[in-house]
Write a structure and sequence with these properties.
- Helices cover 54% and strands 18% of the residues.
- The chain has 134 residues and is α+β, with helices and mostly antiparallel strands.
- It has a single domain, classed as 2-Layer Sandwich (GMP Synthetase, Chain A, domain 3).
- The protein has a 3-stranded mixed beta sheet.
- Helix 1 packs across helix 3.
- 14% of the residues are buried.
Length: 134
């Protein structure tokens, strides 16, 4: 359902822009609702799970939900396994809460942005503390 702008008329541009804004709003709504569902499911021994973002395809058929897990590497893997195990329940609950023509098929992805940023920051700090080589 992607639209291609062939003409530069203002009406076509507005339709395309509204479509993109709608996808952004749907993505944000999915993020909020999945966050609430995860709080209700109350995963134990999986660290702290946070939904960082959601990206829904323009046709509303597919979606990626990015989650950050504060905890050990084992807890991160356990959290992803639990999300996959509860996928059907989460998907059903989303379809109940968000009324769309299609409920996106969700895929949970571990968001490593924060830990990668800390790693880079640590490397930069190490560079600052090294003595200069003559």
């Amino acid at each position: 359902m992607s639209q291609v702008v062939v003409s530069c008329s203002p009406s076509v541009f507005v339709i395309t822009t509204m479509n993109n804004r709608r996808i952004e709003r749907v993505s944000e709504l999915v993020k909020q609702q999945i966050s609430e569902v995860l709080q209700e499911l109350n995963f134990t021994d999986c660290g702290l799970i946070t939904v960082t973002s959601a990206e829904i395809s323009p046709d509303l058929h597919d979606g990626r939900v990015y989650v950050s897990v504060i905890g050990s590497a084992e807890q991160k893997q356990r959290a992803l396994a639990m999300l996959e195990a509860e996928h059907g329940r989460i998907q059903h609950e989303l379809s109940r809460r968000v009324i769309l023509k299609y409920t996106p098929r969700l895929k949970f992805v571990l968001d490593e942005t924060e830990s990668e940023a800390r790693r880079i920051e640590s490397l930069l700090d190490d560079l600052d503390h090294e003595p200069p080589h003559d």
